[in-house]
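Researcher: I've been going back and forth with a colleague about how Pyrroline-5-carboxylate reductase might be arranged in three dimensions. Neither of us has a model we trust, so I'd like an independent prediction. The organism is Desulfoscipio geothermicus DSM 3669, in case that matters for your notes. Sequence below.
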Amino acid sequence: MPVGEYNFGFIGGGAIAEALVAGVTGAGLVAPEKIRVSDVNAERREYLREKLGVAVTPDNTALVAGADIVVLAVKPFVIGEVLGEIGGQLSEKQIVISVAAGVPTAYIEKFFSVNVPVVRAMPNTPALVGAAATAVCRGRWATGEHLELARAVFGVVGRAIPVREDLMDAVTGLSGSGPAYMYVIAEALADAGVRVGLPRDVSLTLAAQTMLGAARMILETERHPGVLKDMVTTPGGTTIEGLFALEEGGLRAVLGRAVENACRRSRQLSGDNN
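Model: Here is an independent structure prediction for Pyrroline-5-carboxylate reductase. You can compare it with whatever you and your colleague have in mind.
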């Protein structure tokens, strides 16, 4: 069945939910009247209703009753409470998509009395500008068709890539936390530009656009980053001097430790939800 024929229910109306709803409606994938959002905050509900044209409710159980696809867009520390509230109402004909970080599909499935298909997704915050890197995996009762459905939804806010669930903590350490790493690098580049004489606004714009352009070169040319790096690097030139400084400073090792540390912490949090 085409994505647009499903009725969607979003539990939680935060930034990621807003980005997904705006993405699927803006792309014409799902009509606003096919979407309902529940949120505990009355002001937030009114904001979503006015901005996105979707129905809103404070009642999770009412939302689930009318949804073919239930998107769990809540914080990990409240997901147990939410699942305890709605778990007994879900049927095998419905689909659950969870974006709760660090919450395994097996934990979610424990709350259901029937075999409800569950898909887990790990988007990142650039979903807000349609440039997310999202990993998706399926639970015990979900099929490849359910996974492709989730990919279609998350594909409107960036790229959606299927992975095994045992890799989701690694995904969290790399792309989930990755935007923060990139912000630090962008800030450092901008500071360096200021140090050598550039105005702050010019330096930050050049740094950010350079990162964007480099990312697009990797994705659109499908060439290895090392090949692209060598294309910019001439013998005895300026770039090799800069690259030598990065190697001296241990940039690769620092980024490696950042991903490993974040991955380790994600595993710890996942263990709390088993």
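Researcher: What would you highlight for our discussion?
Model: I'd start with this: The chain has a mean pLDDT of 95. After that, consider the following. DSSP finds twelve helices and eight strands in the chain.
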